[in-house]
Amino acid sequence: MTDSRLLGQDAAGSWFLHVADTAAADVGTLNSWSLTLVP
Q1: 6 phi and psi, to 5 degrees?
Q2: Which of 14, 17, 21, 35 could form a disulfide with 28 if both were Cys (CB 3.0 to 4.6 A apart)?
Q3: Model pTM score
Q4: 39 to each of 1, 9, 19, 24, how far by Cα in Å?
């Protein structure tokens, strides 16, 4: 996912990733994720 509205914004501060599998019938797995900050 990219969002050009964030270009040029200050990346300093706290970052959090929240993932939820809210389906009761099965189990989900997050295998990997990444965040690329471009100055």
Answers
A1: -90, -5
A2: 21
A3: 0.43
A4: 17, 9, 26, 41
